[in-house]
Amino acid sequence: GSLTASGTCRCNGGFAGPDCQYSDRTTCLGHGAATPTGGCRCHGGFNGSHCQYSDAETCSGHGHVDEVGHCVCLRDNVAGHWDGVTCSECAGQWTGRGCQEC
């Protein structure tokens, strides 16, 4: 970064914080943008305090992961009706390869 006339740091792209100590790559594991307070604004498909949870990996691609790493499974006629800890099972009476048959 660079020092401003007022004596604060102006961070280069991909860095944030009073001393530019937070980086997108390290703080947010490359899956989000670091904030000035050391948090992350995660890219789509990622969540968690450091963007450490991935929809595709954590929820088998059949749900969205919340802030604490739990899956919220998809349940509709297009994406299928999924259930289970990792959204890898059909919900209720739904069957078939895509959990779209009743």
Automatic annotation (TrEMBL):
Domain EGF-like, chain residue ranges per copy: 16-52
Matching InterPro entries: EGF
Entry keywords, A to Z: Disulfide bond, EGF-like domain
Keyword set includes S-adenosyl-L-methionine: no
SS bond list: 42-51
Spans traversing the lipid bilayer: none
Name recorded for this polypeptide: EGF-like domain-containing protein
Organism this protein belongs to: Eutreptiella gymnastica
